[in-house]
Specification:
single chain; alpha/beta; FAD/NAD(P)-binding domain; D-Amino Acid Oxidase, Chain A, domain 2; 2 domains; 8-stranded mixed beta sheet; 27% helix; 29% strand
């Protein structure tokens, strides 16, 4: 069975970038359809699940907030541990994504789950989607590509593949939550109508748990990346990312780290969840706009090439894309799409280019004795002043 739909905006992918784009476009009064290949939004989770405090407004929905993070402990090759302030929130990423999509749907967006884009005729603005109800032919006016690092939209347009690092992550019991640099009670962080104070009793509309610190390991064992431990209440996300061009095996390396932390009594042996995936590390695409197609989130290359952080940039780019589509279609602003690209570059390009340059600089030291030098690692990690002065 085949049907045909005409929409103002077609969004491919319902991660944080796609959800934010769908919400912004729907709030503007546009006809919005969003397609997501997964049966359930956000599942499986492929993320460390940390968000910076400016995104606290998106952590208000029931079940999203899991843990407050006060700072970061960075372990250097010598064994020295550097402590830095890096406040943020640990969230349930699937619940975070679902909350954005639900808001978009409440504002009129049509969501199509378990649905795949299989053909794209960008010249005629036609997209063919296979859904559980059959094939749907979408005639769109603007398409927002929020379909991740291996973007089908980008491939359909003949755009080059992005450079990738690869990550593996386990969710494990956290046995020493109180010993992970517990903080004094910080001031409450408030969103609209909800307190995110650590004194709150709930994990959803309450406040989360007492703030603690994330753990980061910089080591020659993790070429092109690093390892992390992010507490989430009674569990933690333990993972690492590497550049496979240096012969690194992320699963084998993660197993070694997991066993070490088990032997130290910090985490449990049981692996509650396994996940992994590719992380774009090449910076922004050369073009974020191709005709009436806008790229956002991982599909745009907005993931930070050093830290792998991408949720905040995904939400910001999605919101801007939805707003740009509204300006272009409703206000007849012929410059709106290119202004979207200019705005994204103004906001993110400098930090992304610096990170790309740091990756290239570090690449010359991996698999050499210099990779064991604390100063080399400090120059390649965003928490240190040397990162900004190299």
């Amino acid at each position: 069975m085949e049907s045909r739909q005409q929409v103002d905006v077609l969004i491919v992918g319902l991660g944080p970038a796609g959800g934010a784009a769908a919400l912004a476009a729907a709030q503007a009064g546009l006809r919005v359809a969003a397609v997501e290949r997964k049966k359930e939004i956000g599942v499986p989770v492929q993320c460390a699940e940390f968000i910076p405090l400016p995104l606290a407004c998106h952590a208000q929905a029931e079940g999203v907030l899991r843990q407050r993070i006060r700072g970061m402990n960075t372990h250097l090759p010598s064994g020295h541990v550097d402590k830095s302030e890096s406040p943020g929130l640990m969230v349930d990423r699937a619940a975070f994504d679902r909350a954005l999509a639900r808001q978009a749907e409440e504002n009129g967006a049509q969501l199509h789950l378990n649905s795949r884009l299989v053909e794209l005729d960008a010249t005629n603005s036609v997209a063919m989607v296979v859904s559980p109800q059959g094939r749907i032919c979408f005639d769109y006016r603007v398409l927002v590509a929020a379909d991740g690092p291996y973007s089908f939209v980008a491939r359909s347009l003949g755009l080059p593949r992005q450079e990738m690092a690869y990550a593996r992550q386990y969710t494990v019991p956290l046995l020493e939550a109180d010993k992970l640099s517990p903080s004094p009670q910080p001031s409450p962080v408030k969103g609209e109508g909800v307190s995110l104070s650590p004194r709150g009793r709930g994990l959803g509309r309450g406040g989360g748990l007492k703030a603690t610190c994330a753990e980061i390991w910089l080591s020659p064992d993790y070429p092109g990346g690093y390892a992390w431990l992010f507490p989430r209440g009674g569990v933690a996300n333990l993972g690492l990312g590497v550049d496979k061009r240096f012969g690194a095996n992320p699963k084998a390396l993660l197993d070694v780290l997991h066993r070490r932390l088990v032997s130290e009594g910090r985490v449990g042996e049981t692996i509650l969840r396994r996940t992994g995936g590719a992380i774009p590390v090449g910076g922004l695409r050369s073009n974020l706009v191709a005709g009436n197609v806008l790229f956002v989130g991982d599909a745009a290359g907005l993931t930070h090439p050093i830290t792998g952080a991408g949720i905040a940039a995904a939400v910001a780019s999605g919101e801007r894309a939805g707003q740009a589509a509204a300006a272009w279609l409703l206000e007849r602003d012929g410059n709106a799409l290119m202004e979207f690209e200019e705005g994204i570059r103004d906001q993110f390009d400098a930090s992304l280019q610096r990170a790309v340059a740091r990756r290239a600089w570090l690449n010359q030291y991996w698999q050499t004795p210099a990779a064991h030098d604390d100063l080399i690692q400090r120059r390649g990690w965003i928490a240190f002043p040397e990162y900004f002065t190299l």
